[in-house]
Amino acid sequence: MNAAPSAVVRPGQRPQARSPAQTWAQLREVASRRYQSAGPFAWRFAHGKLGLDPVFRHLVQSGLLPAGAHVLDIGCGQGLLASLLRAVTDTAAHQGWPPDWGPPPQGCRVTGIDLSHREIERARQALESRAFASGGTSFDRFVCGDLRTWDFPACEVVVILDVLHYMGRSDQDDVLGRACRALRPGGRLLLRVGDGQARTGFRFGQWVDWLVARVRGYDVSPFHGRTLAEWRQALERQGFEVEPRPMSQGTPFANVLLVARRTHEDAAVPAPSPDKELNR
Predict the structure, then answer these.
(1) I want to staple 65 with a disulfide (CB 3.0 to 4.6 A). Which of 12, 94, 105, 160 is the partner?
(2) Which helix (H) or strand (E) element contains residue 61?
(3) Which of 86, 22, 31 minimizes the C-alpha distance to 53?
(4) What phi and psi, each to the nearest 5 degrees, are found at residue 233?
């Protein structure tokens, strides 16, 4: 699939707005193309994931990610969200943005953590190496580590997509509490989970996650789900206001995106730790 030709935008000229379908096709193409240097599997996964999973399009069109935010991507995999946000910055600046979408999340900086060394290497090869090779600077960092013990840096947004069901409930609660404390005032947590009450879709999602985990070399089983009501209660105990949004459109799953905003602004927020963010 070839990218649509770029419109020429002269200095001082405002880019013309494009249709949502055109903009998303361009973002998908640009974001997935970066992974060609990381091998055919990485490119195919990125292209397929962006085409089939509704959460990524929702994140960029909904205004949930503020421009210039520091985004902590917990369970980042090969860094697909970071690649997509880079594509947003390029596309919005040069080719316009659909007027019925929220403000484009331009200039975001991503810190990603994942347990898989293989996935982190793909992220670094596709995103960090390309920036340095072109003489630029990569503001995104990818850390191989255990999210249960790694200190989260201060940030405006925490993103956790389809991760917490791989650990026990006490660890889930601990991660949510530390995510809350890492958020700066006004920050938000974007957490996607499966609704255990929707039995058919939830069980199918569990089976698919188990299969994908085995294929990608993870020695885990996604057996620690909760109902939507239980997830809301867990977040509210940590001081969040919670808004659920269905997030399995076009799929057989029972996924929900929980948009959680900090309500306890007096919670302790750790100072940014460059050493930990740059830990390689």
Answers:
(1) 105
(2) helix 54-61
(3) 31
(4) -65, -40
Query: Hey, which bits of 152-251 come out as E strands?
Result: 155-161, 183-194, 240-246
Q: Is the pLDDT of residue 174 over 60?
A: yes
Of the pLDDT bands very low, low, confident and very high (cuts 50, 70, 90), residue 269 is very low
The pLDDT tens digits of the residues spanning 185-206 come to: 999 999 999 887 776 766 657 7
The class (CATH top level) of 36-277 is alpha beta
The structural domains of the chain, with segments of one domain joined by +, span 36-277
Q: Which helix (H) or strand (E) holds 259?
A: strand 255-262
- Among residues 235, 70, 66, which one has the least CA distance to residue 154? 70
**42 in Cβ contact with 35 (< 8 Å):** yes
Task: Using DSSP bridges, classify how beta strands 255-262 and 240-246 pair: parallel, antiparallel or unpaired.
Answer: antiparallel
d(CA 43, CA 31): 9
Helix (H, G, I), strand (E, B) or coil at 156: strand
Mean pLDDT (the chain, rounded): 84
Residue with tokens 């069109």: 61
